[in-house]
Amino acid sequence: MLYTAEMRDGQIHKLLGYAGICLCLAMCAAVSSGCRSMRTAQVRQLRAEPQQCLPRWIFIPDVPNMRDMGGWPVAGGRRVRMGMIYRSSAFDRKLKWYDFGFRPHASAASVDFITKNLGVRTDLDLRSAKETEGMSQSPLGPSVQWINIPAAAYGAIDSPEGRSAFASVFRVLLNVDNYPVVLHCQFGRDRAGTVAFLLNGLLGVPTEKLADDWELSTVWFETGRYTRERCAGAIVAAMTHYAGGTFAEKVVSYVESLGFTRAEIDRFVELMTEKVDGIIAGKKGEPL
Hints:
Layout: H1 5-48, E1 67-68, E2 73-74, E3 78-80, E4 85-88, H2 108-117, E5 122-125, E6 145-148, H3 160-173, E7 181-184, H4 191-202, H5 207-215, H6 228-238, H7 247-257, H8 262-272, E8 273-275
Parallel strand pairs: 4-7, 5-6, 5-7
Antiparallel strand pairs: 1-4, 2-3, 3-8
Helix pairs in contact: 4-5, 4-7, 5-6
């Protein structure tokens, strides 16, 4: 059979087509690799930050998004006390109606680390009754008290249900016998993120840093429509009608509107902040 010019041109076009496909695949791989590299670099950068400037990441393979809520600087040469409140994703896979394929149960080694190394006494579970169906104790074991308070997220924190839930959470945190506490929802981003935002806001962490803290959860989970502007902005917006010139003052007014006294709020602030030099009187969990 003769090798015609038409056959040659057809083969050239076919080769060019293959080359184009390979180029596209290579570009996609490079973009994907770049995204992973950026995310890895972000984690490495977060690991390298000084403790007094950024909450400490706690890298547990089967408990993503776990970190110390403390470390953020506040006014008066103080910072949010570390080793008191941790935040994380859930420790189990309870949902039957939504399969988190990447979410195994916390391993025995992880539970041992959380209960013994971190000394966690209270598992403050912010998930709904549907998410915790059938549970009677914490996945961390019987030595850890399990308190389930279905919480609200973002702007709903100022709804009747959200207000009631936050009041219950704050009441738990006023009891020094409950510390150290780990609070979580399913991902540790929405309900836990909202509660952490308000608690650190109450302590005087600047709004920009509160938004940074919320955004740290995106290191672990894709956010889609859950953006910094939309989510952190909704929490700030929910506090706008409360009295106060600063966000911290508005959160104080919000907590007072839940029935707490200024003395109780001051007690929480004293318990949850420390001097930057780290000199702490008494045992872990006791106020200065």
